[in-house]
Amino acid sequence: MEHLNKKFFYDLSFEELETFFIKSDLPKYRAKQIWLSVYKQGISDFNSITNLPLSLRQLLSETFTLERLEVEKISTSKDKTKKILVKCLDGNTFEAVIIPEKDYFTVCVSSQIGCNMGCKFCCTGSQKMIRNISTGEIVMQFLLAKDLIQDWKKNVKKLKNIVFMGMGEPLLNLDNVTKAIKILTSPDGLAISRHHITISTCGIVPNIKKCAKDLKVNLALSLHAVNDVSRSSLMPINKKYPLNDVLKACREYSLLTKTKITFEYILIDGVNDSEQDAKKLVSIISGINAKINLIPFNAWDGCDFATSKENKILKFSNVLKQKGYEILIRRSKGGDVDAACGQLKMRNL
Ligand code: SF4
Q1: Residues 259 and 202 in one domain
Q2: Would you state the torsion angle of the CA atoms of residues 220, 192, 169, 237, taken in this order, to the nearest 10 degrees?
Q3: Which domain holds residue 279?
Q4: CATH number reported for the structural domain that contains residue 32 in this entry
Q5: Which listed residue (95, 137, 169, 264) is catalytic?
Q6: With helix as H, strand as E and coil as C, how does 235-253 read?
Q7: Taking residues 52-56, what's their average pLDDT?
Q8: Sign of torsion over alpha carbons 77, 82, 83, 89
Protein backbone atom coordinates (compact mmCIF):
# COMPACT_ATOMS: atom_id res chain seq x y z
CA MET A 1 0.00 0.00 0.00
CA GLU A 2 1.31 3.46 -0.87
CA HIS A 3 0.36 6.96 0.25
CA LEU A 4 1.82 10.08 -1.41
CA ASN A 5 4.47 7.77 -2.95
CA LYS A 6 5.48 6.53 0.49
CA LYS A 7 5.26 2.85 1.43
CA PHE A 8 3.15 1.85 4.43
CA PHE A 9 5.86 0.73 6.88
CA TYR A 10 3.67 -1.90 8.53
CA ASP A 11 3.43 -3.86 5.26
CA LEU A 12 7.14 -4.71 5.57
CA SER A 13 8.48 -7.97 6.95
CA PHE A 14 11.71 -7.77 8.93
CA GLU A 15 13.59 -9.35 6.01
CA GLU A 16 12.20 -6.70 3.63
CA LEU A 17 13.34 -3.96 5.98
CA GLU A 18 16.83 -5.47 6.07
CA THR A 19 16.83 -5.65 2.26
CA PHE A 20 15.98 -1.93 2.13
CA PHE A 21 19.12 -1.18 4.16
CA ILE A 22 21.32 -3.48 2.10
CA LYS A 23 20.06 -1.94 -1.16
CA SER A 24 20.59 1.58 0.23
CA ASP A 25 24.21 0.71 1.21
CA LEU A 26 23.41 1.25 4.86
CA PRO A 27 24.28 -1.03 7.79
CA LYS A 28 21.58 -3.67 8.15
CA TYR A 29 21.74 -3.70 11.97
CA ARG A 30 19.68 -0.50 11.74
CA ALA A 31 16.71 -2.67 10.72
CA LYS A 32 16.62 -4.25 14.16
CA GLN A 33 16.89 -0.86 15.90
CA ILE A 34 13.88 0.39 13.96
CA TRP A 35 11.91 -2.83 14.42
CA LEU A 36 12.40 -2.65 18.21
CA SER A 37 11.38 1.03 18.32
CA VAL A 38 8.23 0.47 16.29
CA TYR A 39 7.04 -2.82 17.72
CA LYS A 40 8.47 -2.85 21.25
CA GLN A 41 8.08 0.84 22.09
CA GLY A 42 5.15 1.74 19.84
CA ILE A 43 6.93 4.70 18.21
CA SER A 44 5.00 6.05 15.21
CA ASP A 45 7.30 8.82 13.98
CA PHE A 46 10.84 8.22 12.64
CA ASN A 47 12.03 11.49 14.19
CA SER A 48 11.35 10.06 17.64
CA ILE A 49 13.84 7.21 17.07
CA THR A 50 16.65 9.26 18.51
CA ASN A 51 19.36 6.59 18.30
CA LEU A 52 19.29 6.95 14.49
CA PRO A 53 21.35 9.61 12.67
CA LEU A 54 19.30 12.58 11.47
CA SER A 55 20.02 11.83 7.80
CA LEU A 56 18.67 8.29 8.19
CA ARG A 57 15.54 9.54 9.94
CA GLN A 58 15.00 11.87 6.99
CA LEU A 59 15.50 9.11 4.42
CA LEU A 60 13.06 6.83 6.28
CA SER A 61 10.45 9.61 6.56
CA GLU A 62 10.70 10.26 2.82
CA THR A 63 10.38 6.55 1.95
CA PHE A 64 7.85 5.18 4.44
CA THR A 65 4.82 6.34 6.35
CA LEU A 66 4.86 5.22 9.98
CA GLU A 67 1.71 7.03 11.05
CA ARG A 68 -1.16 5.17 12.65
CA LEU A 69 -4.33 4.85 10.57
CA GLU A 70 -7.18 7.05 11.68
CA VAL A 71 -9.81 5.62 14.02
CA GLU A 72 -12.97 7.14 12.58
CA LYS A 73 -15.33 5.93 15.26
CA ILE A 74 -15.20 4.10 18.60
CA SER A 75 -18.28 2.53 20.14
CA THR A 76 -17.99 1.23 23.70
CA SER A 77 -20.60 -1.15 25.04
CA LYS A 78 -21.79 -1.57 28.63
CA ASP A 79 -19.49 -4.58 29.05
CA LYS A 80 -16.53 -2.39 27.89
CA THR A 81 -16.16 -4.08 24.50
CA LYS A 82 -14.84 -1.46 22.10
CA LYS A 83 -15.61 -1.58 18.43
CA ILE A 84 -13.42 0.65 16.27
CA LEU A 85 -13.92 1.76 12.70
CA VAL A 86 -10.53 2.16 11.03
CA LYS A 87 -10.05 4.45 8.04
CA CYS A 88 -7.50 3.25 5.45
CA LEU A 89 -5.20 5.51 3.45
CA ASP A 90 -7.47 4.96 0.41
CA GLY A 91 -10.54 6.08 2.37
CA ASN A 92 -12.09 2.62 2.83
CA THR A 93 -13.13 1.59 6.33
CA PHE A 94 -13.20 -1.68 8.27
CA GLU A 95 -13.80 -2.78 11.85
CA ALA A 96 -11.80 -4.25 14.71
CA VAL A 97 -13.16 -5.20 18.12
CA ILE A 98 -11.35 -5.07 21.46
CA ILE A 99 -12.86 -7.53 23.88
CA PRO A 100 -12.11 -7.42 27.63
CA GLU A 101 -11.70 -10.80 29.32
CA LYS A 102 -11.06 -11.28 33.05
CA ASP A 103 -7.44 -10.13 33.16
CA TYR A 104 -6.47 -9.60 29.54
CA PHE A 105 -7.85 -8.39 26.22
CA THR A 106 -8.54 -10.06 22.90
CA VAL A 107 -8.55 -8.17 19.63
CA CYS A 108 -10.78 -9.42 16.84
CA VAL A 109 -9.35 -8.34 13.49
CA SER A 110 -10.78 -8.05 9.99
CA SER A 111 -9.05 -9.54 6.96
CA GLN A 112 -11.19 -8.22 4.06
CA ILE A 113 -13.29 -5.13 3.40
CA GLY A 114 -16.61 -6.80 2.70
CA CYS A 115 -16.82 -10.51 1.89
CA ASN A 116 -18.15 -12.46 -1.05
CA MET A 117 -18.85 -15.72 0.81
CA GLY A 118 -22.48 -14.72 1.27
CA CYS A 119 -23.20 -16.56 4.54
CA LYS A 120 -26.88 -15.89 5.15
CA PHE A 121 -26.59 -15.10 8.85
CA CYS A 122 -23.71 -12.63 8.48
CA CYS A 123 -23.97 -8.84 8.22
CA THR A 124 -20.60 -8.54 6.45
CA GLY A 125 -21.74 -11.15 3.93
CA SER A 126 -24.50 -8.76 2.91
CA GLN A 127 -21.92 -6.05 2.07
CA LYS A 128 -20.08 -5.81 -1.23
CA MET A 129 -16.56 -7.23 -1.29
CA ILE A 130 -14.19 -4.29 -1.87
CA ARG A 131 -10.70 -5.63 -1.36
CA ASN A 132 -8.33 -7.65 0.79
CA ILE A 133 -6.93 -5.91 3.85
CA SER A 134 -3.15 -5.44 3.51
CA THR A 135 -0.54 -6.95 5.81
CA GLY A 136 0.11 -3.57 7.41
CA GLU A 137 -3.59 -2.88 7.92
CA ILE A 138 -3.91 -6.19 9.78
CA VAL A 139 -0.91 -5.38 11.99
CA MET A 140 -2.32 -1.87 12.48
CA GLN A 141 -5.50 -3.25 14.09
CA PHE A 142 -3.39 -4.80 16.82
CA LEU A 143 -1.32 -1.61 17.30
CA LEU A 144 -4.42 0.60 17.52
CA ALA A 145 -5.92 -1.77 20.08
CA LYS A 146 -2.70 -1.65 22.07
CA ASP A 147 -2.66 2.19 21.92
CA LEU A 148 -6.20 2.24 23.33
CA ILE A 149 -5.77 -0.16 26.23
CA GLN A 150 -2.15 -0.33 27.19
CA ASP A 151 0.80 1.86 28.05
CA TRP A 152 3.60 0.82 25.63
CA LYS A 153 6.24 1.52 28.30
CA LYS A 154 4.77 -0.99 30.73
CA ASN A 155 5.64 -4.35 29.31
CA VAL A 156 2.59 -6.18 30.65
CA LYS A 157 0.93 -8.61 28.31
CA LYS A 158 -2.54 -7.12 28.58
CA LEU A 159 -3.41 -7.58 24.94
CA LYS A 160 -2.85 -11.28 24.60
CA ASN A 161 -5.10 -12.87 22.01
CA ILE A 162 -5.76 -12.16 18.36
CA VAL A 163 -8.69 -13.75 16.60
CA PHE A 164 -9.27 -13.43 12.87
CA MET A 165 -13.04 -13.37 13.24
CA GLY A 166 -13.85 -9.88 11.99
CA MET A 167 -14.93 -8.90 8.49
CA GLY A 168 -13.93 -11.21 5.65
CA GLU A 169 -12.61 -14.74 5.12
CA PRO A 170 -8.94 -14.81 6.28
CA LEU A 171 -8.05 -17.90 4.27
CA LEU A 172 -8.95 -16.03 1.06
CA ASN A 173 -6.36 -13.40 1.97
CA LEU A 174 -3.81 -15.93 3.12
CA ASP A 175 -0.64 -14.23 1.84
CA ASN A 176 -1.33 -11.01 3.74
CA VAL A 177 -2.62 -12.88 6.80
CA THR A 178 0.50 -15.11 6.85
CA LYS A 179 2.85 -12.15 6.55
CA ALA A 180 0.97 -10.22 9.25
CA ILE A 181 1.14 -13.22 11.61
CA LYS A 182 4.91 -13.41 11.05
CA ILE A 183 5.20 -9.74 12.03
CA LEU A 184 2.91 -10.14 15.05
CA THR A 185 4.83 -13.19 16.31
CA SER A 186 8.33 -11.80 15.59
CA PRO A 187 10.31 -12.36 18.83
CA ASP A 188 12.07 -8.98 18.42
CA GLY A 189 8.74 -7.19 18.05
CA LEU A 190 5.29 -7.80 19.43
CA ALA A 191 6.17 -11.44 20.22
CA ILE A 192 2.62 -12.80 20.29
CA SER A 193 2.57 -16.57 20.77
CA ARG A 194 1.03 -18.59 17.93
CA HIS A 195 -0.99 -20.33 20.65
CA HIS A 196 -2.78 -17.02 21.21
CA ILE A 197 -3.77 -16.53 17.58
CA THR A 198 -6.90 -18.07 16.09
CA ILE A 199 -7.99 -18.03 12.47
CA SER A 200 -11.66 -18.61 11.85
CA THR A 201 -12.69 -19.93 8.45
CA CYS A 202 -15.89 -20.87 6.68
CA GLY A 203 -13.98 -23.89 5.32
CA ILE A 204 -11.57 -23.12 2.46
CA VAL A 205 -10.15 -26.66 2.39
CA PRO A 206 -6.88 -26.22 0.39
CA ASN A 207 -5.89 -23.23 2.52
CA ILE A 208 -6.66 -25.04 5.78
CA LYS A 209 -3.96 -27.48 4.66
CA LYS A 210 -1.52 -24.65 3.82
CA CYS A 211 -2.19 -23.06 7.17
CA ALA A 212 -1.39 -26.31 8.98
CA LYS A 213 1.98 -26.39 7.25
CA ASP A 214 2.96 -22.71 7.46
CA LEU A 215 1.26 -21.13 10.47
CA LYS A 216 0.18 -23.72 13.05
CA VAL A 217 -2.04 -21.22 14.85
CA ASN A 218 -5.39 -22.24 16.35
CA LEU A 219 -8.13 -22.98 13.86
CA ALA A 220 -11.84 -22.28 14.32
CA LEU A 221 -14.31 -23.63 11.81
CA SER A 222 -17.64 -21.89 11.21
CA LEU A 223 -19.73 -25.06 11.14
CA HIS A 224 -23.30 -23.85 11.82
CA ALA A 225 -25.08 -26.91 10.34
CA VAL A 226 -24.82 -30.68 10.57
CA ASN A 227 -25.64 -31.80 7.04
CA ASP A 228 -24.81 -30.58 3.54
CA VAL A 229 -28.33 -29.46 2.62
CA SER A 230 -28.69 -27.21 5.62
CA ARG A 231 -25.06 -25.96 5.53
CA SER A 232 -25.23 -25.16 1.81
CA SER A 233 -28.40 -23.15 2.35
CA LEU A 234 -26.73 -21.12 5.13
CA MET A 235 -23.22 -21.02 3.65
CA PRO A 236 -22.91 -21.24 -0.14
CA ILE A 237 -19.19 -22.17 0.14
CA ASN A 238 -20.35 -25.61 1.34
CA LYS A 239 -21.30 -26.45 -2.27
CA LYS A 240 -17.64 -26.12 -3.22
CA TYR A 241 -16.15 -27.66 -0.08
CA PRO A 242 -18.74 -30.03 1.40
CA LEU A 243 -18.92 -31.00 5.04
CA ASN A 244 -16.99 -34.28 4.72
CA ASP A 245 -14.00 -32.60 3.09
CA VAL A 246 -14.02 -29.72 5.57
CA LEU A 247 -14.18 -32.04 8.58
CA LYS A 248 -11.42 -34.21 7.15
CA ALA A 249 -9.22 -31.11 6.74
CA CYS A 250 -9.97 -30.12 10.37
CA ARG A 251 -9.07 -33.60 11.62
CA GLU A 252 -5.75 -33.46 9.76
CA TYR A 253 -5.11 -29.89 10.97
CA SER A 254 -5.55 -30.92 14.57
CA LEU A 255 -3.26 -33.94 14.22
CA LEU A 256 -0.53 -32.04 12.38
CA THR A 257 -0.48 -28.95 14.60
CA LYS A 258 -1.38 -30.72 17.87
CA THR A 259 -4.04 -28.10 18.50
CA LYS A 260 -7.72 -28.33 19.37
CA ILE A 261 -10.18 -27.27 16.67
CA THR A 262 -12.90 -24.87 17.76
CA PHE A 263 -16.20 -25.56 16.06
CA GLU A 264 -18.36 -22.45 15.98
CA TYR A 265 -22.06 -23.01 15.82
CA ILE A 266 -24.52 -20.14 15.56
CA LEU A 267 -27.86 -21.17 17.04
CA ILE A 268 -30.69 -19.91 14.85
CA ASP A 269 -34.28 -20.36 15.95
CA GLY A 270 -35.95 -23.29 14.17
CA VAL A 271 -33.09 -23.68 11.67
CA ASN A 272 -30.30 -25.66 13.33
CA ASP A 273 -31.07 -25.74 17.06
CA SER A 274 -32.97 -29.01 17.73
CA GLU A 275 -31.74 -31.80 20.02
CA GLN A 276 -31.52 -33.96 16.89
CA ASP A 277 -29.11 -31.42 15.40
CA ALA A 278 -27.01 -31.54 18.58
CA LYS A 279 -26.82 -35.36 18.41
CA LYS A 280 -25.84 -35.23 14.74
CA LEU A 281 -23.20 -32.62 15.55
CA VAL A 282 -21.63 -34.98 18.08
CA SER A 283 -21.55 -37.79 15.52
CA ILE A 284 -19.99 -35.80 12.65
CA ILE A 285 -17.12 -34.37 14.72
CA SER A 286 -16.48 -37.61 16.59
CA GLY A 287 -12.75 -38.38 16.94
CA ILE A 288 -11.61 -34.78 16.31
CA ASN A 289 -9.81 -33.08 19.20
CA ALA A 290 -12.28 -30.23 19.54
CA LYS A 291 -14.20 -27.77 21.63
CA ILE A 292 -17.47 -26.14 20.64
CA ASN A 293 -18.51 -22.51 20.79
CA LEU A 294 -22.26 -22.06 20.71
CA ILE A 295 -23.22 -18.58 19.58
CA PRO A 296 -26.84 -17.49 20.04
CA PHE A 297 -27.61 -15.66 16.78
CA ASN A 298 -27.16 -11.89 17.05
CA ALA A 299 -29.88 -10.30 14.92
CA TRP A 300 -29.08 -7.34 12.65
CA ASP A 301 -31.29 -5.02 10.56
CA GLY A 302 -32.47 -6.74 7.40
CA CYS A 303 -31.78 -10.37 8.40
CA ASP A 304 -34.50 -13.02 8.37
CA PHE A 305 -33.34 -15.10 11.33
CA ALA A 306 -34.08 -14.98 15.05
CA THR A 307 -32.10 -16.04 18.12
CA SER A 308 -32.83 -19.49 19.56
CA LYS A 309 -34.98 -19.66 22.68
CA GLU A 310 -33.02 -19.96 25.91
CA ASN A 311 -34.38 -23.43 26.78
CA LYS A 312 -33.34 -24.75 23.37
CA ILE A 313 -29.83 -23.34 23.78
CA LEU A 314 -29.50 -25.15 27.11
CA LYS A 315 -30.87 -28.44 25.77
CA PHE A 316 -28.53 -28.24 22.78
CA SER A 317 -25.52 -27.57 24.98
CA ASN A 318 -26.47 -30.36 27.42
CA VAL A 319 -26.38 -32.95 24.65
CA LEU A 320 -22.82 -31.87 23.82
CA LYS A 321 -21.74 -31.69 27.46
CA GLN A 322 -23.01 -35.21 28.11
CA LYS A 323 -20.65 -36.41 25.41
CA GLY A 324 -17.76 -34.76 27.24
CA TYR A 325 -17.20 -31.74 25.00
CA GLU A 326 -15.87 -28.47 26.34
CA ILE A 327 -18.65 -25.98 25.55
CA LEU A 328 -18.64 -22.23 25.59
CA ILE A 329 -21.90 -20.41 25.06
CA ARG A 330 -20.51 -17.25 23.53
CA ARG A 331 -22.95 -14.52 24.40
CA SER A 332 -22.33 -11.66 22.04
CA LYS A 333 -20.05 -9.16 23.74
CA GLY A 334 -20.91 -5.57 23.03
CA GLY A 335 -24.46 -6.43 21.98
CA ASP A 336 -25.47 -2.79 22.40
CA VAL A 337 -22.80 -1.56 19.92
CA ASP A 338 -23.51 -3.53 16.76
CA ALA A 339 -21.45 -6.54 17.82
CA ALA A 340 -22.09 -8.83 14.86
CA CYS A 341 -19.23 -8.49 12.42
CA GLY A 342 -19.83 -5.79 9.83
CA GLN A 343 -22.60 -4.03 11.74
CA LEU A 344 -20.71 -0.90 12.74
CA LYS A 345 -19.51 -0.38 9.18
CA MET A 346 -23.00 -1.08 7.86
CA ARG A 347 -24.46 1.56 10.15
CA ASN A 348 -21.82 4.06 9.03
CA LEU A 349 -22.46 3.55 5.31
S1 SF4 B 1 -19.31 -15.36 8.14
FE2 SF4 B 1 -17.24 -14.85 7.49
S3 SF4 B 1 -17.06 -15.89 5.52
FE4 SF4 B 1 -19.24 -15.81 5.94
S5 SF4 B 1 -19.95 -13.92 4.92
FE6 SF4 B 1 -19.42 -13.40 7.05
S7 SF4 B 1 -17.34 -12.65 6.98
FE8 SF4 B 1 -17.73 -13.79 5.07
Answers
A1: yes
A2: -30
A3: 70-348
A4: 1.10.150.530
A5: 95
A6: CCHHHHCCHHHHHHHHHHH
A7: 96
A8: positive
